[in-house]
Design brief:
The structure is a homodimer of 103-residue chains.
Chain A lengths: L11 H42 L5 H16 L29
Helix pairs in contact in A: 1-2
Chain lengths: 103, 103
């Protein structure tokens, strides 16, 4: 929503996003490594879904969607509002299932 | 956008999201560990921004925003559309800076 060429480099959000963009490739590699840990679970689940639903389920689509959802939900570790801090303890926070998809 | 109690458990997306929700706390811990690697860079950048801009910059807000943006951009590893596959090679893909905030 922000074009880097159109805004001031003294904008704090732009400065931070420049760093973010620089680190993103390395961060992406780390993220992929994390997802590799869970891949077998998602693959198994997607295969089960395909078996049970018995229709044209594209397992790789389902898995990618689940991964995107996991990243979306991980944002809750770093909330926008006024909070004490998003330290390691925040990782223990487990939102109620009913709230999960409401954001 | 989907309430778990209101939809069928045979919905493939719901089934996958149940697994996602189960794995989310563990995934969040892994994500926090990844961000710890980069924290010093973001903290330094936020301090510089605060110094340079010389106004009421809340460094922790800036850092959390950058983290959320990093998670948002990591979704590009797992695109919605028709692609070959979101394997480890995809992590090497580096979008042009000008495209970064357009999605």
């Amino acid at each position: 929503r922000r074009s880097l060429s159109a805004v001031s480099y003294t904008d704090p959000h732009v400065s931070m996003d420049l760093l973010r963009a620089v680190l993103q490739p390395s961060f992406n590699n780390d993220i992929m490594a994390v997802f590799m840990k869970y891949q077998k679970f998602y693959e198994k689940a997607a295969e089960n879904v395909k078996e049970n639903v018995g229709m044209e389920v594209q397992t790789d689509h389902l898995i990618r969607e689940a991964y995107r959802n996991a990243l979306e939900h991980a944002k809750q570790l770093f909330p926008e509002g006024e909070v004490k801090r998003a330290g390691p303890g925040a990782a223990m926070k487990r939102p109620k299932a009913s709230d999960e998809e409401c954001s």
